[in-house]
Here is the input.
Amino acid sequence: MSYLNSQRRRRQRGLTMVELSVVLVIAALLIAAVFTGLRGNQRRAELQHNATLITQIASALRAQFGRTGQYANTTLALAVQSRAIPEELRIGTGTTAQNGYGGTLALAPATCAVVNDCLDLTWPRVPQAQCMDLVISTQSVARRIQVNAVDVKALDGTLNLANLATNCEAVGAPAVIYSIGR
Here is the structure.
């Protein structure tokens, strides 16, 4: 009788170990699925936040400097001080700013149709995985868009998706240049 009891206990232990292994595998799969979902949500939130910032900046630049014909005199320092660049992007109390990806912004007068009728806003260090989505979602704010110094939206034209895809994939973290103007 004791032999049968010990056999049952061994079988029970074996089944318990198998069951435990199955439970652990299922738990690991669930954790992986949750983690993947959270990363996707985080990526979408980061993308949306940067797209919103670009749209706000473009609008503020046109309102503050375009209406008064001051693009030629506009610098990043002036845009930061005038709050055309949101306070949250300002680096400390200085006159520089960085985007949501940690890249330092650049702003310079540019020529779209006539001299100094635009400002080039450089949005650097855009992750490859977000580059296309960011440009597509912000294409309406700019007269011209370049990725890695290549036009993906010609002056007052439409977005060239083939050029966009190629240039977003060309380097690890491309810079997007928005020509914002009247």
